[in-house]
Amino acid sequence: MNKYIKAVFCVPLAAIKYAILKVEHGNRFKASFPAIMSPLTEVTVEGKSELHIGKKLKMHNGAKIRVRKGGKLEVGKNFGMSNGCVVTAYEHIKIGDNVMLGPNVLIYDQDHDYKAEGGVAAMKFKTAPIAIGNNVWIGANTLILRGTTIGDNSVVGGDSCQRELSA
Q1: Concatenated DSSP letters of 94-134
Q2: Rounded Cα–Cα distance for residues 154 and 104 (Å)
Q3: What is the distance between the alpha carbons of residues 155 and 167, in angstroms, rounded to a whole number?
Q4: Which of 16, 28, 102, 133 has the most CB atoms lying inside 10 A of its own CB?
């Protein structure tokens, strides 16, 4: 689709989504405009969670931002999510300015606590913050897990997995 035609449709859609999130969550949702969100994107903020988004957010089809169970997600300016990306915060994820995600990048600050009583079915999680610096490009099909820190001016190659070193 021509980028100008897409902008005419996707910028107002982002404004509508932002307005709904602001009404639902008040000061726990902060976002700067402009933003572009394709129609098949998802932004969810549960309960007392917080979401802060800088200027020039770009979300392509299938991209999802989810802030769960009192978590906090901070996104800097000029953040881009390609098709199929998912960012889910249960604790805290901080993403700097000028960060771009290739297709199907997954960022999770939690994973199941299989040692908990009841195992994975108990739906208990281990969490640790994630920090992604400024001017970072993360290649397609990359998985970023709890406890990861990615410094400024970094490139993460496609099909890789980044996680904390201690379990």
Answers
A1: EE-SSEEE-TT-EEESEEE-TTSTTGGGG--EEE--EEE-S
A2: 18
A3: 25
A4: 102
Place of tokens 């897990």: 145
Structure tokens at 15: 């404004």
pLDDT score for 144:
95
Identity of the residue numbered 53: I
What is the enclosing helix (H) or strand (E) of 30?
A: strand 29-31
Distances (CA, A) of 113 to 36, 46, 118, 123: 36, 21, 10, 8
Identify which of 41, 6, 8 has the alpha carbon closest to the alpha carbon of residue 18: 41
- DSSP, res 28: G
104 to 20, 57, 83, 158: CA distances (angstroms): 26, 17, 6, 10
Could you give the CA distance from residue 115 to residue 150 in angstroms, rounded to a whole number? 28
| Distance of alpha carbon 81 from alpha carbon 42, whole angstroms | 12
Per-residue confidence band for 162, with pLDDT thresholds at 50, 70 and 90: low
pLDDT category at 163 given cuts 50, 70, 90 is: low
Q: Are strands 110-112 and 125-127 parallel, antiparallel or unpaired?
A: antiparallel
Q: What is the largest CA-CA distance in the chain?
A: 54
The class level of CATH for 3-162 reads mainly beta
Rounded to two decimals, the pTM is 0.89
